Predict the structure.
Amino acid sequence: MAGDKTRVLTIGGPRDLREYTETLTEPEPGRVIVDVTYTGICATDVHGYTDGSMLPPAVFGHEWTGRLSAIGDGVPNLQVGQRVVGGVGPACGTCAQCVAGHARHCDTVFAEANGIDEEAPEHGAFAGRIQVSPRRVLPVPDALSDIEAALVEPAAVTFHAVRRVAAELGVIVVVQGAGPIGLLTAQHARNAGAGLVLISEPSVRRRDVATMLGFKHVVAPEALESVVHDTSHGRGADVVYECAGVASLLQPSAELVRRGGTLALLGYPLQKSTVSSADWQSRELTIIGSLAYNHDDFVGVMNLIAARRLDVEVLHTGTVGLTWLRDTLEELDSGHSRHAKVLVSPLN
Ligand SMILES: [Zn+2]
Ligand SMILES: [Zn+2]
């Protein structure tokens, strides 16, 4: 209810979580207030927590779902009580990119996705309640559970990448890494008509999850090169999705791609890397960079989940209260966590 105090957790510095309480009363005109149900912890949140300075405040806790608890003046088409997920708005039509006809690369949407738009919330959703622009809320279909709704954002990130690659039917795809991003990418690639999806992952537990999802070629990284070689008769993969975000893996990943194939970059290495651009050039690789998403990626992903053609719940390995956020971020950073996707429930 408006007027209640709500807890908010933000980043103060390296490994420094700051907690404060906020009283969100009535929403400002043109804003809505969301009572947060769940917020997923993403690798970006973990990096932001350990680094202390890289994330805009709105991005720390960006994978959220909740219910609209209040709607400001001048906001059409939304109702109090409606379930929503946090996303980005449609192309704005007025920025430099839109005006030039490049609506899929709208500057406003890019800024929203990065939490740096003029209407960005003051903090992310490691909080009981947040106030956002109505552009940022998408209604959730009844067919989705709250947990599924909380997993829509990473599903949209990966959906965006697979759409950008737009591979032919029947291709051989490699997915590097079977964390949440890899497992979602692999499912999208399968839905997009890949002939063969090879998944490489060091963790046995994560490999088991991939197998449970019906993938038949799930291997340890040491075995990947020979499996790619054998299944492609020595050509290499048509598409490699690099989902691990490890700088030193970029060139080895590129070397798994066949001449004329595609390397898609989803993982976000924080260090610079050394690659052989002469190799990429001479073998005519197509490099697809992918960051964040468009509005329709959210719509598409929710349709797929509702149609039971995308399993997001399999990623969910635990739910913690806000009080446990610090410990959970430390655990996820340790590299020894059993978790894939942890959700934070601010009510606990
Ligand atoms: Zn994320
Ligand atoms: Zn625009």
Observations:
- The chain has a mean pLDDT of 95.
- The two ends are 17 Å apart (CA to CA).
- Residues 42, 44, 62-63, 153-154 surround zinc ion (ligand 1) (CB under 6 Å).
